[in-house]
Amino acid sequence: MKRNITIIGTGYVGFITGVCFASLGHRVICVDKDQDKIKSLKNGQVPIYEPGLNKIFKKYRKNIFFTTDFKKAINNSEIIFIAVNTPSKKGGKIEIKYFEEAIRKIAKLINNYKIIVNKSTVPVGTGEWVKREIQKHYKKDFSVVSNPEFLREGSALSDFLKPDRIIIGAEDEKSKKIILDIYSKIKAPRLVVDIKSAELIKYAANAFLATKISFVNEIANLCEKINGDVAKVAQGIGLDKRIGPKFLNAGIGYGGSCFPKDIRGLDSIGKKYKYNFNIIKAVMLVNEKQQKKFVAKIRQILNKTGGNIIGVWGLSFKPNTCDVRKSPAIEIIKALQKDTNYRIQAYDPVAIENAKKEISSKNIKFSKNALEAVKDADILILVTDWPEFSKINISKVKKLMHQHYILDGRNQLNPKEIKKLGFYYEGIGRK
Q1: Strand partners, 380
Q2: For residue 429, how many C-alpha atoms fall within 13 Å in the half-sphere facing its CB?
Q3: CATH code of the domain covering residue 355
Q4: What would the mean pLDDT of 32-56 be, rounded to a whole number?
Q5: How many Å is the Cα radius of gyration of the chain?
Q6: How far is Cα 99 from Cα 9, in angstroms, rounded to an integer?
Q7: Catalytic residue ranges
Q8: Which range marks the domain in which residue 85 is found?
Q9: Model-level pTM?
Q10: Model confidence over 310-345: pLDDT tens digits?
Q11: Other C-beta atoms within 10 Å of 129: how many?
């Protein structure tokens, strides 16, 4: 059944959620207080890089509308999704002021039965606060639902339209039935739980995946001491069906807008309820050490060779996205910039403009392509595993470089082929 849906917030989650619901045949209104962003969206400009997003947006453009008029958006929809940013505050607590602002607007404008659905990642117990806040202004029937998102940047369309599962936190039959209906065209397991459990599922899922990453990085560090190969170890344990192969790629750690924030957020929730997350603290510590260890390797090689020019491949926190938030690449560059003698030449297929906003222009040059980034370099560091990097002619790289050292922070390149060409190559936890 075709439904009228409003999405509050046109950021990454909000825009993709809106476009995907439009592709399912629903009528979608995306509302945001940012007038420039709404004007741009009305003109058909996609605000983020995501494979396939331009195509699906153009195809279903007739089903999606953009406005800054909150009253119109709320009054003309039965279902209202909140998809605003909930960044991390100092100490790990989640900043929900934008979320609270959206709820207070709804509370003052609601005119009949609505289902208020939370897509933003918020602390456990927020659903109860939403109920109380709405009831201050509206005494009639409404519903509150938690519907966490599991969108991975670079594969978000598939994650929405072909998900592993759909989680719905609903505590009345009416809202449960309607929310199940809006996803009726998607084939995936559905799990309906209470609101608090739904709020916790997103945190728990991301924390578990981050734990796998930090665990395999610990194994990688041991492999370097015993001359083992973490790729083979990961393959061996990944064949166990109880473990699985995903998120067992050793490297320089996790980053992005979700993992660091959600893990810190879960630790903060534990503190609120007087529970000490020992595992979560260890996961965060290992991740931080992994990047420091990589920087130390770079310094060690440059001190040994007397070189100072560093070629950098990759700036985004992962391939197929322009997102540089909490990117290990950015953190590593910031650490290297503290040494004024170093000269950094960095390249990324799509994330350069966003990177310029995050890091100082001090002793760094942004290159037009991967080969330009290695010209006269003493060392090449690969920090984001974009597919194009594995296709580059390494012989050309060798001719362009001044000294021939490669540190592969994502274990993307073939060590045997690199070494045959006369490079010093070092990955993470590899022989």
Answers
A1: 311, 406
A2: 24
A3: 3.40.50.720
A4: 94
A5: 24
A6: 10
A7: 258
A8: 4-193
A9: 0.92
A10: 999 999 999 999 999 999 999 999 999 999 999 999
A11: 16
